[in-house]
Write a structure and sequence with these properties.
The protein has helices at residues 54-74, 127-136, 153-178, and strands at 2-6, 10-12, 15-17, 20-36, 40-51, 82-93, 96-97, 104-105, 108-121, 141-148, 181-198, 205-206, 213-214, 217-231. It is an alpha+beta fold. Mean pLDDT is 82; it is low at 1-20 and 199-208.
């Protein structure tokens, strides 16, 4: 990719004088990925209850959720790691065909109350026991389990360094193949990715006497874009 930089025309004695300098560049994208064993987990669990009235459904739900919260506290989960992620009440509708009109005759037959929590477990050795305990105390829904790092910054920095090294290696290879020289760097853009699961040959099983959990690995990725000025 080439950029053309033109100076402004200067009029001297009725004549226009212009100068131009052509700068050749090469844009390289570098990627870095670091796979590490996670040290924390986030799970979404909750309580769903049904009753004839909305108040009764919510009361039963609240009682079960208090038991779940107490269990999490006993397991060593701090208050800062527990957050309500959903609270809702929905009617339960009957759906049948009326024998008189032949149409749909829908009526409210009860209510469903749902209260979900987002829970961070910082000690993975306790994860299986935590799942066992909360289900025993009334948690009857679970929407997801994800693994991560309590402090991803050091791994992210390592991924950035790997991305820059990747870009430099690509630039050197392409410059040699194209028979050009790298003069300098015009711009560097940093784009960090995120954290994603990564496979392992052997999974570590957590809490073997409780719910078996495979922790696997998580991958932290980073991307950099470097624009090199080239000559030749």
């Amino acid at each position: 990719m080439k950029y053309l930089v033109l100076s402004m025309a200067v009029f001297l004695g009725g004549a226009a004088v212009a100068s131009a300098e052509e700068i050749a560049t090469m844009t390289i994208h570098g990627q870095g990925e670091i796979a590490v064993v996670p040290d924390m987990a986030t799970l979404r669990l909750g309580v769903v209850t049904e009753a004839e009235t909305a108040g009764a459904a919510l009361a039963a739900n609240s009682a079960d959720l208090v038991a779940v919260l107490d269990t999490l506290g006993t397991a060593g989960i701090e208050a800062r790691d527990i957050q309500t992620s959903q609270l809702s009440i929905h009617p339960i509708w009957s759906d049948h065909t009326s024998s008189i009109s032949g149409g749909r005759d829908r009526q409210i037959t009860g209510f469903t109350a749902t209260n979900e929590l987002s829970v961070r477990v910082r000690d993975l050795e306790k994860l299986g026991d935590v799942l066992d305990a909360v289900t025993a105390q009334g948690a009857n829904t679970m929407r997801g389990l994800s693994f991560g790092l309590s402090d991803p910054d050091p791994v992210t920095e390592e991924a950035r360094l790997a991305a820059v090294a990747d870009a430099q290696a690509r630039a050197a290879l392409l410059a040699e193949a194209a028979q050009v020289d790298i003069v300098g760097i015009q711009r560097i853009e940093d784009s960090t990715g995120g954290m994603s699961p990564a496979g392992r040959a052997e999974f570590g099983m957590l809490a073997r006497d409780a719910v078996p959990i495979a922790e696997g690995e998580v991958t932290v990725s980073a991307t950099v874009t470097i624009i090199y000025e080239i000559d030749g």
